[in-house]
Design goal:
Helices cover about 50% and strands about 20% of the residues. By secondary structure, the chain is α+β, with helices and mostly antiparallel strands. The chain has one domain: Nucleoid-associated protein YbaB-like domain (Ybab, Chain: A), CATH 3.30.1310.10. Strands 1-2-3 form a three-stranded antiparallel beta sheet. α1 runs antiparallel to α2. The longest helix is centred in the last third of the chain and has 30 residues. It starts with a helix and ends in a 10-residue tail after the last helix.
């Protein structure tokens, strides 16, 4: 009987591993966006933590206030990456059935 349980556990682990690999592959397809300054700066990222685009409105380009533009870009990038991490965590959590596996995200 214990042998049967071990085989079932191994099958379950293999299924979870396959679901996890599939979920990780999909992360590059899931996009999130963030904007600051009333839409003056927009950043898009994928759930695998890659910035795919940065858009800056011409109105945000003030040579006398470069620091404000830098702050808006930094804020939008950090917000987009935080959103990407949240999406990735939810996606991977669904694949693992809610198990907390260290090192995933």
């Amino acid at each position: 009987m214990p042998q049967m349980n071990m085989q079932q556990m191994m099958k379950q682990a293999q299924k979870m591993q396959a679901k996890l690999a599939e979920a990780q592959d999909k992360l590059s397809e899931l996009e999130v966006s963030s904007s600051t300054g009333g839409g003056a700066v927009k950043v898009t990222a994928t759930a695998d933590m890659k910035i795919t685009s940065i858009s800056i409105s011409p109105e945000a380009l003030d040579p006398d206030d470069v620091e404000m533009l830098q702050d808006m870009i930094l804020t939008a990038v950090n917000d987009a990456l935080e959103s990407a991490q949240d999406v990735a965590s939810k996606q991977l959590s669904a694949a693992t059935g809610g198990l907390n596996i260290p090192g995933l995200v």
